[in-house]
Every structure is written in C-alpha cells, then in structure tokens.
Amino acid sequence: MNIEFSNLRQAEGIVDELLELKNRIEQRINLKQNSGKKSVPLNNNMVMRICFLTGLSLRAKRDMKAVEAVVLSKNGLRIVPSFFTKNDLGKIYSPLLKLRYADCNVNWEEPATLSRIVAHEILCGRNYLMDSNHLEECLMAQYGSRKATVGIPRLDIAIGTYDGEMEATLDLNGRNVNNTQILIAGSTGSGKTNLLALLVNRLRQETADTNYPVNFLLFDYKGEFSDPKNRNWLNYLEVDETCILDPMQHPLPFTPFRDFTNSNINEVNLYSTALATALTALDNTKISANMANRLSEAIMDAYSQTNYRPISFQRLLNCYQSKLKDPDTMDSISSVLSQIVRGNIFSDRDETPLVENSFIVKLDSYPKEGVIAKAIVYFLISKLNTIYEQLPPQHVTEECVELRHFTIIDEAHYMLGFDNQPLRNLIAVGRNKGMSIILATQSMDSYRSKYFDFYTNAQYPLIMKQQSINDSVLRDLYGLNQREMQELRQDIAALGKGELLIKNQDAYLLGMGKKWKKINVTRLI
User: Fold this and answer.
1) Residue ranges covered by each domain of the chain
2) What does the H/E/C string look like for 134-183?
3) d(CA 328, CA 523)
4) Apex 263 CA angle, 305 and 385, nearest 5
5) What is the rounded CA–CA span in Å between residue 31 and residue 20?
6) DSSP E strands: which ranges in 221-354?
7) Residue 146: band (very low, low, confident or very high) from pLDDT cuts 50, 70, 90
8) How many angstroms separate the CA atoms of 436 and 425, rounded?
9) What confidence tens digit (pLDDT) does each residue in 402-438 have?
10) Order of strands, edge to edge, in the sheet holding 182-185?
11) Distance between CA atoms of 167 and 202, rounded to whole angstroms?
C-alpha cells in the first residue's frame, strides 16, 4: 500500500536550516549568468526536494531515535502538496521510504511520525550535500528533463487556529468564492506585518513550485521587508534580494505610461484626460478648467512627439510649460511634475516584466503623504491595469480558479483618501483575470471611502486590535443589533497581538449565532 503524503508538518526552522545550502546552489547555477541578467533564485520547496531525494539515496541504516528527535514546526507549518506531486515523484517516494526503513517498526499512517521521517531525510540530505564535494557531484550529474505537471493549486490557506485549536483557513480560489480581496485593519503592534508575511508565505509556498505561481507586488511603506536586518524574511516569501526595488537608488524598471503605437487617436484622448485627473489628484490640487485642459493637451503633444510610444515625465513637463504664458512659471501642476522628474523614479521603458516576477518596492525614504510615494503606487497600479486588460481570463477547474498576482499595500490609507481610479479598476478587472489585493491599515474606518466601498465588497475584512472603530462600519460588516454591537466592541478591545476577528459566514447568513470568530494567527516572523 502506498504511503499517503498529506497534511505533513515541516521541521521547526527548516527554511533557516537549508539557507546556506540554498545559497551555495544558487551561486553555482548562476555562475554563467551574463552581467545585468536577473539571477535564478531557488524556491524553498525545490531545495527541500533536492535534500529529500539525496537523503533517500543514502543507504545508511536508519535510526528511529534520530527520527524521533526531530522537532516539528511549533506553528503547524505544513509541507505543501506540490512537494510530493511535482514531476510525479510521489510514486517513487513511497517504495524508497519503505525500503530505507524496512528494519524499523514504522506506523506509516501516523502523520507526526511520517512528518519526522520526511524531515529527517531532508536534513540528512542537507548534511550530505554540505560535506566535501558532494554538492558539485550532484549538480554535475546528468538528468533527463521533464516538465512539471502540477495543476492549479488549491489555495485554502492556513493562517492560524480558532479557539479550540481547529485550523483556520482562508479560501482564496474556490469556485464559490466571490473575490479574493483581503483587508486588514490593526493598530501598531497588533501583528499586521506578521499577518502580511504569513499570507504571502502561504501563497508563495503553495504555488511557487507549480505551473501557476502567484507573484506579488508589495509596497513597503515602513521599509520592514526591504530592511537588510530582516533579510531572512525573503526566504519565507520565496524571493531573494533582487526582488527589492529602491527608487531612491535606481529608477523603477518600468515606464508608467501606456504605449499607443497603432492605436486609435480617441484612445489617446481618453487616456490624456484620465492621466491629467490623476496627476492633480496626487497632490489634492484644486485646479481650474483651463489648467486641466492645458495638461490634457500637453499629454497629447508629448505623445505626438514620440509617435505615440511611451512618453516621459520630463517631456510632459516641457510640453506643459511651453503652453504657459511665462514658461518659467511654476503653477501647481508644474510643481507636481517637477517633483516627479527630480525624483527620477521611473525608467523610460520596461526593463523587466512586472507581473511575471515578484517585487518589493521600498518606500520608507519618502514622505508617506508626499507626491513621490503616491506617484509610485498610483502609476504601478495603473500599469497593472494595463497588463491585466491584455491577459486572457484565468484558468478554471471544477474545484478552483487560477490566481496570478497579488498587489499588497501596507499603510493603505495613504492611497484611499482620493479618487484612486486605478485601484478601483484593478479590483473590478482582476476578478476575471486571477489578480487580487491585500490592503493593510490602522483602522477599518479608512476603507470607508466616499469614492469606493472597499470593506463591504471584500471577501475577507480582518479586524485586529485597533484604537477605535465606527459603529456604522461594524453594522455594515456584520449586521448587528445593539447587544451584539457591544459584545463585538468588547471582543475587539480584548484582542492581543497576533489575534484577529473574521466574519462567521454561516452565522451571518442564517441570522443566528455569533457573527464573528477569533483567529490566533500563526507566528512566522
């Protein structure tokens, strides 16, 4: 009978245990990369699988005392299904394990025992590859290539436990899920950063090793994910330092402007109007109708100069100021454009695909409410809109749908206080294109925008400890009477670090029982 590889736990700290070997392998396989080319990072699943297969290839006698000494993840971190299913390797794991442990008394149906055995083989493989020239010999061996056959991964991701220790999951791509938008609200110290890291970890861990990886674009307002002191966090996100983009050091490798080569002139007219509105919204500037028209005309002129290829902010500024009576005049629009030009935050062309990779944009060097930070987020989201408009619909199976990409904004309230058309479009367009958003801010009230109803449309509004929350927001979310409102307020006040409240959908729909549940979030970082 074959061994059932399901719901197995990782060894405690396994990612850190494999980090040195991971770095050695990456250095070796990237030796031939041309300068200027993006290096090839290994995902943690692949490193674990290399070690597991290496461990199983060793013929040494197995010692169950050594197996029993393995400490499993205290946070319940699991080995993802693709670890066993990729390239159909699961068919050889079962007989190999039984062969290696033929002299041991093993209950193969006990998940904890099987988890320790798998972890032990991984660690033995790691030790072997770190010793002498074994790694070089392994990498020089010739193997036949075979394309992965893993289908769309089911993303019912575990984020912690309910009271009573039952596993708490978020279903992100089931066929019955309306959308995959996640809104997080919690004050400083509530555990938002850990929750963000955990969500990305689960998404990447479940998909990075499949034919349907979920990539992400994370706007790091506080600089925590891009801080060198937190470099080990990147291992949990299945990325390396090359994913960090610091526009203070180098322009972002994307142009924020659309390419209208061979397009209808009416498309350019509509775009120029929308772009003019955007540029004035970034600085909450009150402008006259004449100024708005002048800006739209300047955008049209700039595009005509490039034969409708992507323009630049410098060209746009020049065209705008040429329309002023005094070209040296610095009005509010010139001021916004000049700030962006001086910031040198965007490239004049696309140097790397935005959606086909994962990126962390470092924003902590800029004033959070300033023009530059808003422009970076606004125009990258606009670019995502353009990309998603051109993508085919997501793949669908009987069980689930494909997810392609997540846009993640910490301190999201800075992008909610004005008419953020690209963010609204991304939410609307993305549902059928496999994209979603994760927004985090200090209070659920921030999502109550007069421009768009963020929190009642989101699949998962997650409430962490916060200073205050509006009664009308709670009514919108849960449909509460006065007694329930008081009880919910008490539960929010009692939340500790790493705890959150989530809507109890069954109770909400039935109109009976407690309409929210508490989750103790798994600690990752």
Assistant:
1) 14-140, 180-253+348-475, 265-343
2) HHHHHHHCCCCCCCCCCCCCCCEEEEEEECCCCEEEEECCECCCCCCCEE
3) 56
4) 100
5) 17
6) 244-245
7) very low
8) 11
9) 999 999 998 888 888 777 888 888 887 777 788 889 9
10) 167-171, 156-162, 516-521, 499-503, 460-463, 182-185, 435-441, 405-409, 215-220, 359-362, 244-245
11) 14
Q: What distance in Å separates the CA atoms of residue 359 and residue 200, rounded to the nearest whole number?
A: 12
The label of the residue with tokens 């392609």 reads 404
Gap between the Cα atoms of 156 and 173, Å rounded: 7
Residue the block writes with tokens 């070209």: 327
Distance separating alpha carbons of residues 73 and 407, to the nearest angstrom: 29
Please give the single-letter amino acid code of residue 421.
Answer: Q
Q: What is the DSSP string of 306-330?
A: TTTS---HHHHHHHHHHTSSSTT--
Q: How far is CA 437 from the centre of its chain?
A: 8
CA 165 to chain centre: 27
Q: Answer whether residue 471 shows pLDDT above 90.
A: no
With a pLDDT cut of 90, the percent of the chain lying above it is 38
Q: Which two tokens stand for residue 174?
A: 């089931």
Supply 246's token pair: 């610091």
Amino acid at 369: E
How far is it, in rounded angstroms, from Cα 439 to Cα 425? 15
Q: Which residues contact 181 (CB under 8 A, 6 or more apart)?
A: 427, 436, 437, 438, 439, 454, 457, 458, 459, 460
The two tokens of residue 44 are 């943690």
CA nearest to 295, candidates 270, 277, 283: 277
How far apart CA 451 and CA 259 sit, in angstroms, is: 28
Domain 180-253+348-475 top-level CATH class: alpha beta
Mean pLDDT score across all residues of the chain: 86
Residue 506: which H helix or E strand, with range? helix 505-510
Angle between helices 482-493 and 471-478 (to 10 degrees): 110
Of 252-256, 449-453, 467-471, which has the strongest mean pLDDT?
252-256
pLDDT (tens digit, 9 = 90+) per residue, 230-278?
988 998 898 888 899 999 999 999 999 999 988 888 888 888 888 888 8
User: For the whole model, what pTM was predicted?
Assistant: 0.78
Tens digit of pLDDT for each residue in 67-113?
A: 999 999 887 788 887 788 777 777 788 889 999 999 899 999 898 99
Q: Residue 234 corresponds to which tokens in the numbers above?
A: 């990147």
Whether 295 and 276 have beta carbons less than 8 Å apart is answered as yes
